[in-house]
Design a protein that fits this description.
alpha+beta, 2 domains, nine-stranded antiparallel β-sheet, eight-stranded antiparallel β-sheet, 26% helix
Length: 379
């Protein structure tokens, strides 16, 4: 090997060695920066007591949850009550959110991970505001994060989420919480408590097609009867009547209809009408529209006031009277609280799952069954 060639190889080794050292130092510096951020709060200065509103802006919709008069409400649904537990849960998650990974990110990667503020590849913008509308903290929530690629990312449970702080658009963070509550779907936010008409005395249905029936009972322990003639050999199907009346106590809300849903679109221009009276002295009237995506649009009205006094039972002892009076007073207090919440639903178009109303929206013949023949005893 000539001296000239040897000198070139030595110089090249020095250059490559220096480049490798530079790359190593750059990598070490980046890793040191990332390591320093691991486990740190994502939203450092966010305090629960200062939050007066949460705004979630997706590519296609916006949802704003605002605290008013001591209650969280959904602005896009005319201040329909939000589930306070869900609001509190998101706030606590946001405050406790820690950096799991921190990596530099280029513009094309932001779009791929849905971390842009707007346009192509836009993510979901999460903003916590004070009561006067001042932004307290902001975060862009992108795609789900998976440790291993799932068969169907849309339905699979994520291991975390890609997020980005708008003030640092060159860094992507990975958090261990999938942040499922960061959604503009009102169904994920509303207080789903609906109608709980207990101890039904009479239940009546007038369908839009003219079908009509009414069942009733004299007291909570009495047998159901049905209006009109019963064909020979048939009787009231007690289990089906019980199921229909019981459904009135479990009418949870699935969602609230958008304000631009018209009566013609919902079928509430020609509704079926359900009327239930209770032994407590209340009358519930439901107007039920046509089935849309597995849910019925429903409006409710409530008349009457709860009975304030209890009718003592015959031959009731003083001890039983005191015990029953106490139980009645406690139940009355619960009923009045529930009634106040239910009356807040009046004037709203509620969306109720089909299965919740299936036992009520039946034809009259459904509540009739073949009369059991009495078996002859032994001779």
């Amino acid at each position: 090997m000539s001296g000239r060639v040897l000198a070139i190889l030595v110089a090249l080794a020095i250059v490559l060695g220096g480049g490798a050292l530079w790359l190593h130092r750059q990598q070490s510096a980046r890793e040191a920066t990332n390591v320093a951020t691991l486990g740190q709060p994502v939203l450092k200065d966010l305090k629960a007591a200062e939050i007066g509103a949460i705004r979630i802006e997706g590519p296609k919709a916006t949802l704003t949850v605002t605290q008013r008069d001591g209650q969280w409400k959904i602005a896009e649904r005319k201040d329909f009550p939000a589930d306070a537990a869900k609001v509190r849960g998101l706030v606590l998650k946001a405050i406790e959110l820690k950096v799991g990974q921190s990596e530099p990110i280029a513009a094309e990667d932001r779009a791929r991970l849905a971390l842009n503020e707007s346009g192509e590849g836009a993510g979901t913008r999460l903003t916590f505001q004070s009561s006067d509308g001042k932004p307290l903290a902001r975060l862009i929530v992108g795609n789900k994060y998976f440790k291993q690629a799932p068969d169907n990312p849309d339905t699979a449970t994520a291991d975390g989420r890609y997020v980005m702080r708008p003030e640092d658009p060159k860094t992507v963070l990975v958090v261990s919480d999938p942040l499922a509550q960061v959604s503009t779907q009102t169904a994920r936010w509303i207080d789903r408590s609906g109608i709980a008409a207990e101890d039904v005395k009479t239940l009546e249905l007038r369908m839009a097609d003219g079908e009509h029936w009414k069942i009733s009972r004299e007291n909570p322990d009495a047998t159901w009867t049905i209006d009109g003639e019963i064909p020979p050999g048939q009787q009231v199907a007690v289990t089906k009547a019980n199921a229909a009346s019981y459904s009135m106590s479990l009418l949870e809300i699935e969602d609230v209809a958008a304000s631009d849903l018209t009566a013609a679109q919902s079928g509430l221009d020609k509704p079926s009408i359900v009327t239930a009276t209770t032994f407590a002295g209340l009358t519930y009237t439901l107007k039920v529209g046509k089935l849309i995506d597995g849910k019925y649009p429903v409006t409710v009205s409530i008349e009457g006031e709860p009975n304030k006094a209890r009718t003592p039972k015959a031959n009731e002892s003083d001890a039983d009277k005191a015990k029953n009076d106490k139980a009645f007073a406690e139940n009355l207090k619960k009923l009045e609280a529930r009634l106040a919440r239910e009356k807040a639903l009046v004037g709203r178009v509620l969306l109720i799952e089909k299965i919740k109303l299936d036992d009520i929206l039946e034809k009259r013949a459904h509540f009739l069954e073949k009369k059991e023949e009495k078996k002859a005893g032994p001779k």
